[in-house]
Amino acid sequence: MTDLLNIDNLHLEFDTYDGVVKVLAGVDLKMRRGDVLGLVGETGCGKSMTALSVPRLIPMPPGRITAGRVTFDGEDILSKTESEMEAFRARHLGMIFQDPVTNLNPLFTIREQLVDAVLYQRAQGQKVPGRWRGFLPSVRQLRKEAQERAVELMRLTGIPDGEVRIFDYPHQFSGGMRQRVLIAMALAGDPDLLIADEPTTALDVTIQAQILRLIRSLVSQLGLTVLLITHNLGVVARSCERVAVMYAGRVIEESPVRELFKNPKHPYTRGLIAAVPQKDISRGGLEGIPGMIPNLIDPPAGCRFHPRCEYVMETCRGAVPPAVPVGEGHTASCFLYPEDV
Amino acid sequence: MSLLLEVNNLQKYFPVRGGLFNRRLSDFRAVDDVSFALQEGKTLGLVGESGSGKTTIGKCILRLLEPTAGQILYDGADITHIKARDLRRLRSEIQMIYQAPAASLNGRMTVGQIIGEPLWIHESLKGDAARSRVLELMHVVGLKEEHYYRYPHEFSGGQQQRIGIARALAVQPRLIVLDEPTSALDVSVQAQILNLLQDLQDQFDLTYLFISHDLGVVRYMCDEVALLYLGKIVEVAQTEVIFEAPKHPYTQALISAIPEPDPDMQREEIILHGELSSAESPLTRRGGFRGGGCPFAPRCHAEKLATCETLPPTLIEIEQLHQVACHLHPALAPAENP
After folding, report:
1. Do B187 and A176 touch (CB under 8 A)?
2. How far is CA A287 from the centre of its chain?
3. 3-state SS string over chain A?
4. Are B183 and B214 within 8 A, CB to CB?
5. 8 Å CB contact between B139 and B131
6. Among the listed ranges A95-109, A302-316, B280-294, which one has the minimum average pLDDT value?
7. What is the pLDDT of residue A109?
8. How many CB atoms lie within 10 A of CB B32?
9. Cα–Cα distance between A3 and A32 in angstroms, integer?
10. Separation between Cα atoms, residue B58 and residue B211, nearest integer Å
11. Full-model pTM
């Protein structure tokens, strides 16, 4: 089976007053249809930027892609024109973001926002018929059908009484319910790929558990492919099949979920897992990773993790470690693992 | 071991105003009849979801908010209504560390000024004497000497939190209220700060009131845990007991919802329906519980008794140091057999 999404050696820079920030430095990521991939990393490691490069939502300028390719189902995304992009997003992508409050317009009811999403996606990126044209019989029929679809989407995402709640405004919904509305919106066009950028970070744990269960059930019901971005390793362990760990603009380890937690290879991944307060850690037993994430205006040469790494060797300072297979479907970018094993 | 802090039947109601002449329509019961005690040198965790009243309790203890009713005893003395003059002395004993390190530091002051300010206020220290104390504090929390003249925005989140910790330590407090001290930080930095807090506790004999929504962090930091739901304590126990044998259905659900970074972990997942502060009805719901049943009843996954809807459960000690407020617990069954 061919890859659904293939990000190949992506380099992204941002111009700022302080200098050029090298946000992504050679990101490689592959996803197959039906994959649920977790993209993990700390603040500023480039996980959101990697995800946003797929729908090409990175503001350019100041952003600039200096090298690399992004292909989706064999199509080259980076060479598309803006209007092709609009149709592409409508047909293939759905996105949900961290903050369910700011992503809904408080001035419109859920009905208007959901129906718009459905119509837009039906029209595959073309402009939605204007408000006044809603009096034309054909368009009215279209809107009616779209509303039926919207209610169906609400049922699918677990919002009770969709027929009634659809007339409510966003402030009448709680945080968890708003996130469900956004998921419904993302599903409006039967997307091939759902990109979820920290979908549960703003929610309480019990609500987080509800939303993660919803995403999992959507995966099994609709055969969705999901790219789940999070900083929470626990969320990944609960909901993903594969994990890619990012550090300072690179994917440093990729593996099936169980393998990653049982047998982490990269020193950063090990540090990250050891830093989570877990069940059997007694007082004083928690290990942090010394130091801080590097400044990406002037990133460390070679492996970007080397200033914080306890196994640092001479080669680490000079050369970028390539991704090396270290197990079944498991790769790590670290010189600790020789290439010819 | 002595009790350092005792909170008895604390209540904090916020008036809900509206209508004609901005009348007081009802009360928002942020904290409703909460009692707990904290031993010197120990850490008590206050855990709950957003809107459960945990921060309000912390602020009432520092008297940043005036409690509506109840009593707060610090070191045996009632501090619920002490005067402003005594309050200043009290505040050198009790300090607070806040959630958002950037927002809790004055952006126009240097690190030296920020950490030195409490020394000037409480001990009238300034000049070289203050400077040497500040440098000592900076060393204790892991900041470098060259940071003295820098401004907060030049630091990362973890470093900013270290500044906040140094400021709290400046007046040599005995009790520190930590309000979600690491929830704005990345895990690797969170681990550093948690370890720092533990080291400081050992070094200076500090007592912590640790407010958090992250049960993993609480399990690591606290000796005892109190769980809050809609302004009421639903369960208090030693940390191991809470995590190994939780009795209240809410505690059980919350613990099952911790995302553990262990894909092999087998456990029953309890998914609660509904939300704590559903936007449509937090006020009506709270008002509606006046004399009503258990506040958790609408979301409870356990098999309910008739009393759950009608009688509010009281917090009762079921074993030593383990209190639960739930009708389902056998020890609390007198309602069936009055």
Report:
1. no
2. 28
3. CCEEEEEEEEEEEEEECCEEEEEEEEEEEEEECCCEEEEECCCCCCHHHHHHCCCCCCCCCCEEEEEEEEEECCEECCCCCHHHHHHHHHHHEEEECCCCCCCCCCCCCHHHHHHHHHHHHHCCCCCCCCCHHHHCHHHHHHHHHHHHHHHHHHHHCCCCCHHHHCCCCHHHCCHHHHHHHHHHHHHCCCCCEEEEECCCCCCCHHHHHHHHHHHHHHHHHHCCEEEEEECCHHHHHHHCCEEEEEECCEEEEEEEHHHHHHCCCCHHHHHHHHCCCCCCCCCCCCCCCCCCCCCCCCCCCCCCCHHHCCCCCHHHHHCCCCEEEEECCEEEECCCCCCCC
4. yes
5. no
6. B280-294
7. 92
8. 23
9. 5
10. 8
11. 0.85
Q: Nearest CA to A245 among A54, A70, A27?
A: A27
CB within 8 Å of chain B, chain A residues 275-294: 275-279, 281, 283-284, 286-290, 292-293
Read off the pLDDT of residues B123-143 as tens digits, 9 standing for 90 and up: 888 888 899 999 999 999 989
The residues, ordered by sequence, that sit 6+ positions from A323 with a Cβ below 8 Å of its Cβ are: A28, A251, A254, A331, A332, A333
d(CA B97, CA A181): 36
Instruction: Tell me the angle at which helices A175-187 and A137-156 cross, rounded to the nearest 10 degrees.
Output: 120
Residue identified by tokens 């008739």 is B306
Q: Are B194 and B217 in contact (CB under 8 A)?
A: yes
Distance from CA of B190 to the nearest CA of A (A): 8
d(CA B338, CA B317): 19
- Give me the residues of chain B with pLDDT under 50, please: 278-291, 334-338
ipTM value > 0.85: no
3-state secondary structure of B185: coil
Which residue of A lies nearest to B273 if distances are taken between CA atoms? Answer: A210
Q: How buried is residue A188: exposed, middle or buried, by Cβ count under 10 Å (0-12/13-18/19+)?
A: buried
Evaluate whether A158 touches A214 at the Cβ level (below 8 Å). yes
Buried (b) or exposed (e) across B277-305, using 16+ Cβ within 10 A?
bbeeebeebbbebeeebbbbbbbbebeeb
Q: Is A288 close to B190, i.e. CB distance below 8 A?
A: yes
| B228 has a chain A CB within 8 A of its CB | no
User: CB within 8 A of A229, min separation 6: which ones?
Assistant: A38, A39, A47, A48, A51, A195, A196, A197, A198
- Sequence-ordered list of residues with C-beta below 8 angstroms from that of B81, at least 6 positions apart, any chain: none
| Cβ pair A283, A292 in contact under 8 A | no
Within 162-181 of A, beta carbons closer than 8 Å to B belong to 171-177
Owner of token pair 């590097």: A294
Residue B223, SS3 per DSSP: coil
Looking up tokens 């005690």 gives B37
CA pair distance B327, B334, nearest whole angstrom: 9
> Domains of chain B, with CATH numbers?
3-103+175-260+269-336 (3.40.50.300)
Task: For chain A, say whether B194 makes contact (Cβ under 8 Å).
Answer: yes
* Preferred mutation among B217, B220, B265 to probe A, highest tally of A CBs within 10 A: B220
Over the stretch B139-174, which tens digit does the pLDDT of each residue have?
999 898 889 999 999 888 888 999 999 999 999 999
